[in-house]
Design brief:
The chain is an alpha+beta fold and 385 residues long. The protein is 17% helix and 39% strand. Strands 5, 6, 9, 10, 22, 23, 24, 25 and 28 form a 9-stranded antiparallel β-sheet that branches. Strands 12, 17, 18, 19 and 20 form a 5-stranded mixed β-sheet that branches. A hairpin with a 6-residue loop joins strand 1 and strand 2.
């Protein structure tokens, strides 16, 4: 009877601790990256009741929730994000709730630990936005002229052609075509001038009888003087013998345009997002884009042996018990941007566990009551003797 009393007491303690685990799961049902746990009972040797043997972390993924933050990331598949604290220790998490801090480093929003990436050699590095905040100026090297110029037109002008010098300063040019067919059939003299009206390039374009550019007269060079010295820009009028550039066809009005194919000033990043490979994609303009670092992922052969530390960080794994790799590689999941992985807690399961715990606690309590009544009855019978 006395042993039954202690057995029931151990059962009540065990069920109470198990309820602690369930309550912690429920309270974190909206915590990004949280992993629920299960408490496991074990029998004490010799039939002396039960105790909690430990907890195992649930490794099934949680649901993904879309956000409007480009640095919110979720792992779709296997893997954990790798974080490094100020002491150099590594931590792992499924909660990709990241942001750039005051030092332009991508960090975890809660604890401020740095998000790690892999460089081209496979070394882990921090993601530093300062490295990619601007791209240097590039001078214009090519301008293409397209469209038709009527053989009978006297003069045709293209205005406001914006190019860039090597220092990133914009220069506005104009192109003037003057009919020269009285001297040479199919010929137009070309003058390129700067914003002050000074000629910076002259030449001639000639057309064959089929209206296509003539070889040897389908381009000219423009020389701009700037802080970095002389800069040469090629002006192309089309591929000789084809209709892909300028043409001179009768019966069609003049409608020539200039397209600047390259060159820009100093550009600042105006858009950031991560692709499914975890590579940071940076946008500077409609045509200028760059790729940045690639986030690192860690996988663990025995995830159930891990445990949560601080609510969202994974610990319990040594260097030998983990693999570091890139998103999308074999064994590693892909990245979903503008998203967070939520808790993997299932309320239906938690409610069912609570019912089982409650019944077990009630039964243990009933055993204690019965044991107490039997002991009391034994004492009463002794007094009656």
């Amino acid at each position: 009877m006395f042993q039954a009393l202690f057995n029931s007491l151990s059962g009540m303690f065990s069920f109470s601790r198990s309820l602690d685990t369930v309550s912690n799961n429920v309270s974190n049902m909206n915590t990004p990256g949280f992993r629920g746990s299960d408490a496991f009972f074990t029998n004490l040797d010799g039939g002396y009741g039960s105790r909690i043997a430990g907890e195992d972390m649930r490794t099934n993924p949680g649901d993904l929730r879309e956000t409007e933050n480009p640095t919110d990331l979720a792992v779709n598949g296997n893997g954990y994000f790798v974080l490094r604290d100020p002491d150099g220790n590594l931590h792992y998490t499924r909660a990709g709730q990241f942001r750039f801090n005051a030092d332009s480093l991508l960090v975890d929003s809660v604890n401020g630990f740095s998000v790690m990436a892999l460089d081209g050699s496979g070394n882990m590095v921090e993601i530093d936005l300062d490295t990619y905040r601007n791209i240097p100026a590039v001078g214009t090297s090519l301008v293409r002229i397209t469209g038709n110029i009527a053989p009978s037109s006297t003069t045709t002008n293209i205005n406001a052609v914006t190019v860039y010098d090597a220092a990133g300063a914009s220069r506005v040019l104009s192109v003037k075509f003057t009919n020269n067919t009285s001297v040479t059939p199919g010929s137009f003299l070309v003058t390129v001038s700067d914003s002050d009206g000074k000629a910076v390039g002259t030449g001639e374009v000639r057309f064959r009888t089929d209206g296509t550019p003539l070889a040897g007269y389908s381009n000219l060079s423009v020389v701009l003087q700037g802080p970095g010295g002389a800069q040469t820009i090629q002006v192309e009028f089309g591929t000789p013998g084809t209709l892909t550039g300028m043409t001179s066809l009768s019966g069609t009005t003049s409608s020539v345009t200039a397209k600047v194919t390259d060159g820009h000033g100093i550009l600042a990043v105006n858009g950031i997002q991560f692709d499914e490979k975890g590579v940071m994609q940076l946008t500077y303009s409609e045509t200028e884009k760059r790729s940045g670092p690639q986030v690192a992922l860690a996988t663990f052969p025995n995830e159930s042996a891990l445990h949560l530390e601080g609510g969202r960080l994974i610990s319990g794994a040594t260097v030998q018990q983990r693999d570091i790799g890139r998103p999308g590689d074999t064994g590693f999941g892909r990245i979903t941007g503008f998203s967070l992985e939520m808790s993997n807690v299932d309320l239906t399961r938690e409610f069912a566990d609570m019912i089982v715990i409650q019944r077990g606690y009630q039964a243990s309590s009933r055993v204690m009551t019965v044991s107490n009544e039997m002991i009391e009855q034994l004492y009463n019978s002794t007094r009656g003797g």
